[in-house]
Write a structure and sequence with these properties.
Order of helices and strands: EHEHEHEHEHEHEHEHH
Largest sheet: 8 strands, parallel
Distance between the termini: 7 Å
Strand content: 5-15%
Number of helices: 9
Helix content: 25-40%
Shape: globular
Radius of gyration: 17 Å
Length: 278
């Protein structure tokens, strides 16, 4: 950690990062193909260098529902890593058992450039209750009017819901199609939000949303993620600035809550902090 970076509280989490290498089997339908490696050892070194105790690895969309590389990465440091996998609505409970045993704590639904699935239909409703039984949260990446389609089902979701990247706000005014539905979701007591990846939202919109949520008490269910290695937004990106973007807006008490207490509560897990270079 450099002298210009914030001093973090013990047991701080990065709740959103990706790992992959070239040569993996890629999903047929994908928006992006990486031409570099983002290995788990490199990520663990970043956690150490920045005084972070734990990380959550999120399955990247270009790997589809093949979670094998993610599970192998989790096995390298089970005391410091948890995972968010990608599955389909037909996934049986036995597979969820296997994912849980490997350190998976949530399931991702990435809807960028994809239609909203029929969450009210039987397969999704069955899966919703299976996820809740396993203690898995549903992590959703969506934008604008997709939140209007998602709202009625996510408000009734039986387990925790996590909204990726502050809901990808489309204007710094926070007024745009779908923004009202997003705000209603963010006010629900079972809905959490990741303060992450401001570069994926409209200019200044993520910071405006972060400040709005903090003013409204939304920090009670807020998490932080680095979004490393910033797929499709890699140029000029530095790990430390993804953290200082958040902490510049926080009091010491808020930093402890968002970086430590909140993720420990959502994931029902306190990581081992021995050996972290602080």
């Amino acid at each position: 950690m450099t002298s210009t970076e914030p001093q973090l509280p013990p047991a701080a989490f990065d709740t959103h990062a990706h790992v992959f290498t070239r040569g993996l089997l890629l999903a047929v339908e994908r928006r992006y193909t990486p031409d570099y490696d983002a290995a788990v050892d490199a990520y663990l070194s970043l956690l150490d260098a920045h005084g972070l105790a734990a990380g959550v690895l999120v399955q990247p969309s270009f790997l589809g529902t093949d979670n094998s590389y993610l599970l192998n990465a989790l096995a390298k440091a089970p005391e410091r890593l948890r995972g968010v996998a990608v599955i389909d609505s037909q996934t049986p409970g036995e597979e969820l058992d296997r994912l849980a045993e490997a350190g998976v704590c949530g399931i991702r639904l990435n809807l960028i450039s994809r239609p909203v699935p029929p969450l009210g239909e039987r397969p999704w409703q069955r899966l919703a209750h299976e996820l809740a039984t396993h203690g898995f949260h549903l992590e959703v990446q969506a934008q604008q009017r997709q939140w209007e389609e998602l709202e009625p089902w996510l408000l009734r979701w039986p387990g925790a819901v996590v909204i990726d990247h502050l809901g990808l706000p489309a204007a710094s005014s926070l007024s745009y199609p779908g923004s009202a539905a997003l705000c209603r979701l963010l006010a629900a007591q079972h809905v959490w939000v990741k303060a992450s990846a401001p570069y994926r939202s409209a200019p200044e919109a993520a910071t405006a949303m972060l400040r709005s949520l903090l003013c409204a008490g939304g920090g009670e269910r807020m998490l932080w993620g680095s979004d490393w290695p910033w797929t499709r937004h890699e140029d000029g990106r530095v790990y430390g600035t993804t953290l200082s973007w958040l902490t510049a807006e926080l009091s010491v008490t808020e930093a402890q809550r968002i970086l430590c207490a909140n993720p420990a509560r959502l994931f029902a897990w306190t990581p081992c902090i021995a050996g972290v270079d602080r």
